Amino acid sequence: MRNFMRAIRPGLGALNRTSLYVAGVGMVIMTLIIGWQVFSRYILNDSPSWSEPLSIHLMAWFIMLGAAVGVRESVHLGLDIIRYMMRPGIQKIMDMISLGLIVFFGAAMTFYGVQLCMGTWTATIPVLGWPGGVDFFPLIGGGFLIALFGTERFIDVALGEEIAADVIVQEAA
Q1: Number of domains within the chain
Q2: HSE toward the beta carbon, residue 86, CA cutoff 13 A
Q3: Is the dihedral of CA 39, 42, 47, 53 positive or negative?
Q4: DSSP label of 119
Q5: Range of the domain at 106
Q6: pTM check: above 0.90
């Protein structure tokens, strides 16, 4: 298992970096769209109708991708005060339970996101003209990445090879 994890870690690192950069680009594009909306509303007195739904869609993408990156880098929210008071063996058990729940949550997001996507595909997002199911793509993609990165961290903790929080810096070096 250790060799398998070492073999796939560069690919997971590339996927992690790509997710981070796509989230960053999405945030910049959303900021530009909102800036254009404000300019056109108050200066041109003609606000584009597509700007708000597109911005919300982009925001969903960068939130979900950022959450997945946070899982891989172990910077997601957590209450560690009780964990640090425990013995190392108990800490490992607590980490594995936490990561198991994260994997379960990501898998559930993916599964139910697919269900929602299929159930709303025939509807149309009025302003954009996209199928309604497109709204759930960030949930599906983000849930899959959360489950994938959570599984990686779960295996690392189980093997005793926990990754440091600055995993991107280490991989780039």
Answers
A1: 1
A2: 12
A3: positive
A4: H
A5: 2-172
A6: no
